[in-house]
Amino acid sequence: MPSRNQMGPQALGSALDHTENHSMPIKIAMIGAGSIGFTRKLMHDILAVPELADTHFAFMDINASNLDMVMQLAQRDIDANGLPAAITPTTDRREAITDADYVISVVRQGGLDAFQLDIDIPLKYGIDQCVGDTICAGGIMYGQRTIPALLDVCEDIRAVAKPDALFLNYSNPMAMNIWACNQYGGVPTVGLCHGVQGGHWQIASCIEHWAKKEGLIAADAMVHRNEVDIICAGINHQTWYIQVQWRGMDMAPRLLELFEAHPEYPTTEKLRIDMIRRFGYYTTESNGHVSEYVPWYRKRPDEINDWIDLSRWINGETGGYLRVCTEGRNWFETDFPNWMKQEPPTIAPDKRSEEHGSYIIEGLETGRPYRGHFNMINQGHITNLPDGCCIEIPGYVDKNGINMPVVGDLPLACAATCAASVQVQRMAVEAAVHGDVTLLKQAMLHDPLTAAVCNPEEIWQMTDEMLVAQARWLPQYQEHIPAAQARLAEAERNNTRAQLREGWKGAARLHTKSVAEMAQDKAAATMNAAAADKGEMTKEPA
Fold first, then answer.
1. Which residues are known to be catalytic?
2. Neighbouring C-alpha atoms within 13 Å toward the C-beta of 40
3. Which of 67, 148, 188, 492 is the most exposed place for a label (fewest CB within 10 A)?
4. Is cis: bond before 482, omega within 30 of 0?
5. Domain boundaries, the chain
6. Lowest model confidence (mean pLDDT) among 146-150, 182-186, 326-330, 483-487
7. Long-range CB contacts (< 8 A, 24+ apart) of 242-250?
8. What is the mean pLDDT of residues 450-473?
9. Which phi and psi angles does 118 have, rounded to 5°?
10. Does domain 7-109+140-193+343-403 sit in CATH 3.40.50.300?
């Protein structure tokens, strides 16, 4: 019988022998399980499937303290729901992966310390990022740290996991990671993100408001996203809703009108609405995410606030995701005893999140069909993006495996924007795998926002500074760090160092609250801490 890890032009494998007769519990290794939000959410989702209630989870994280706290919460949840599932916590990655049927990565390589450098060093060169985890200067460096770690995970999967084990990755930068794991890791790897679902809900909300005004639905009616048929295609965080239908009507040409008439989105999604105006199509991800992937909206500090909104970090706040992750982690570690006193959540099918992971596993294990949007390697699926790059398109899962249909051409402007990012990703992946400083600098040079803000010498110096600052998480660059230090020192001596904005906090940076400040609204602090984040690095830095 063919195995799950066989890949063809439109498919990833098939179901395995053990799915024919689910007599043995499956084992799922979760790498980076000290994640506050993702670990419990994904575990709850999986255990909500009756056939998967006896799953054996291996929780792995190098941060033993955070791992223990998450373990205590997860075990309490299992016990309170009377489920036969088991959890084995470990700080040994290979032990966690041994005999695993599935491996899930939620790691943040370098943790919040490295994340801080991804935001703060580019700011000195005028690069104002909201998230910094996909491309732009922060995302490129995040890939340099994460790709070697995930390739180590792949090595363990090849060595000790089940022969047909599937790697499900939630770690960013998604496209670079999936590209590297499939090309260099020798393990079938699928990338999972919830950006398509988020935009899908926004489109449904726009249709709902419009339909009520038109008298097509009752004033108290709601439009669920499942009532709106979409095809979304592109690359992770830059996918495009190229088909949108509701009640047999083609809604894609109406989206600009619908978004402009919405009571909230003209304030919170200014940039994305402008892109509908220019492109004709709506793009996934938040206003803040999208703002740092293109060269137009964050290059002039005095214009940044024209395009963002500070009601939520995700709408464009400078370093917004870093702030909420820092606050969430600090609050969780401080308030953990109170979390254990809370009523355990009910684990049930109607409580599942919209994260794809549990549905993929359910489809492969039970044969129940599932349609989602997954990150896979392009093999003729999007015909005007390069084969071999990582794309995000609709996919179908059942006992026959994960099957990806051919989408065809993207609209030309959408394809052009994606293609610019793809070339940056290609260079960044190759640089990360081979420890190539020149290629890393060339990736930075071609990044759309970085290039819009910095000249070549500034980009060269910024990259050296980021290499030196993050050296302990970059094993592949160790032999190059002394030369980078020397170049920075020479530029300083010769007064040729780029003119830096020392101390500049960005155009829209908010204060990171202390634990004492968060304690003034404990409910909000707890909600933030429980939101999705990624775990710590998978191994201690050298």
1. 194, 293
2. 26
3. 492
4. no
5. 7-109+140-193+343-403
6. 326-330
7. 242/281, 242/407, 242/410, 242/411, 242/414, 244/203, 246/207, 246/211, 247/216
8. 97
9. -60, -30
10. no
